[in-house]
Amino acid sequence: MKLNYTATITLLALGLAAARAEDKKITVPGLSPAPAAPAAAPAAPAFTEAQIVEEFGWFVGKRVGLTELEFTPAEIAAFVKGISVAAAGKDTPFELEKIGPLMDEFMQKKQAAFASKAKAKSLTASTAFFTKLKENKAIIELPSGLRYEIVKTGEGAFPKASDTVKVHYVGTLVDGTEFDSSVKRGEPAEFPLEGVIPGWTEGLQKINKGGKIKLYVPSHLAYGDDGKGGIPPSSTLIFDVELLEIKAGAPAAPAMPVAPAAAPGAK
After folding, report:
1. In the annotation, is 191 catalytic?
2. Last residue of some domain: 97, 132, 167?
């Protein structure tokens, strides 16, 4: 009984001591944990919620193309009103079945007007560009309309249309705007020559491995009247290309590049 009684007293004493130690915030070196460091004050947010929402509104407006499609101030006000109605959780006041086709027609007219102006601007710029280009006697013009300039000769055989090539390239518009670059990505592009725009298919056959060429590709040998991913309709494209490697024949299952960001001139 004495052992049990003593054990009970000892446990009770330890419990009371622990409680007093907690009350007095006693820290025993090597046994008790060190006091927790005060929590760091949270960093002030870089932007307010209002600014974040404003940026979201800007993003939606840019995606819709309010500027490019030349929405009038009244049309923009109506657009914002529609967003406000949706944000309030209200149903549209119009019958979607009736107004939907008219909405499609309205946007198609806006897009057609934009494409027409963009095409006219590109054609005017291209005409002036090619007129100026005639002064450079180092540039060769082919019957297709493709112009090219050999910047550096390579060695060995020339690629065929059925071959796969590995290249580094930079693509620009006639105003100098860069729309794609494998150099910036730090990784050469590889693709079958038959799987890209005609200007590339024809032009790359003019240099051999290690060579560098500058291609001046009119729109009908590039993306035509439609344009593509950052390339306006009817744009003339300029490519600085270095041919790094030639592989005979196209691979069985090529990874088709997606133009223009991941692939130069994919069809």
Report:
1. no
2. 132
